[in-house]
Amino acid sequence: MPESLDATPPTVLIIGAGLGGLMLAAILESTNISYHILERATELRCLGSAIALYGDILPVFEQLGIYKELESVSLSQIEMGIYDAKLNCLGSMYTRDHKIVCGYDILVSTRPKLYEILRKKVPTHKISMGKRVLRIREHGGRVTAYCSDNTEYECNILVGADGAYSAVRQSMYKQLEGDGNLPLGDKDASSVCYITLVGVCSPPNPELYPQLSENICTDFRLVIGDNSDSCYLVTAPDNQISWGLQVQLPGNKARDQQFRSSEWGSESVDAVLDQFQGFPCAFGGTMKDIFDATPKDLISNVFLEEKVYQTWYHGRSVLIGDGAVTAMKDAVVLANCIYNMSDISNKNIETAFASYYRQRYAEAQTRFKSSTIYSKIMYGH
């Protein structure tokens, strides 16, 4: 028998308590739609570096009543400076007119602080930890998620918010492929192009970094090395510095890394850190000073991959995209589509999912193309 969450199973089961899953839960909470989150980690914490939020997502924070709190842990971004390995300025990207165009400044915060703001919107009893989903099965107008601890959870709608390699996607695609309905493009492996290491530090001597004295806007600096590896630094409130290292993988190494890692984690970072020890820090000194001020368990790595999947839903299961801002925007549109359903019949669910797909797929393709251009800037191409 399925493990009981309340008197009855939840209407919406969210797999994954990342930013996308929490955003969806926060909206459903505000609209009194029944939901529950399954998270495979045993504790809730968020790794990562800086995150920039634009006018296309900030109104949602205002509607949820958490915009002021977000503002209090953010700085405005008005410019990004790009430098070479000798710290000669190659150019700048200005965003100071963003508020004139859309009514909001670009807010830059650390990912952990943003995560904490959203997490507080979701009651603790609506998140089950240590629940690694192995597979899903649809039957009789319901969906069941089977976990590694032998528990089962039933729902009317199942949302995969746990990344590109989620069990939800794998189960969905396996069924579609067995029926001969999975597009060829979705069968192909995605391309691993970059390794990124990220972290947030609080320098013991913040006076050594005059950039931290500016409490109105963030200082965003990108340094491109001679071999096209790059490093960025972003100032954040409370004398914090968010940083990230990017290493481009040659074709053969990209293939070797294909299945080694596809999610945030704090392992296997030493080699990349050693590679950047003497890299010039755009705020002064070398990156070693920044690394030494960053707790090792808060340094994480991710293999960045390039792919836009064509299949986002099947039956009563639907997927939220990877990537922080993209996932949150997916969550907003999906929540609206669920809210507008008149009942939970198969027909209405399919109509809601199709509407979600129409609204989000075109933008996903556009963002993919713009991300490719941005990557060429980030890697000195």
TrEMBL record:
PANTHER family, alphabetized: FAD-BINDING DOMAIN-CONTAINING PROTEIN-RELATED, FAD-DEPENDENT MONOOXYGENASE ASQG-RELATED
Name of one Pfam family that matches: FAD_binding_3
Record protein name field: FAD-binding domain-containing protein
GO molecular function per UniProt: FAD binding; monooxygenase activity
Record InterPro entries: FAD-bd (IPR002938), FAD/NAD-bd_sf (IPR036188), FAD_mOase_fung (IPR050562)
Keywords attached to this entry: FAD, Flavoprotein, Oxidoreductase
Domain FAD-binding intervals: 11-181
Lineage of the organism: Eukaryota, Fungi, Fungi incertae sedis, Mucoromycota, Mortierellomycotina
Family stated for the protein in its record: Belongs to the paxM FAD-dependent monooxygenase family.
Organism: Entomortierella chlamydospora
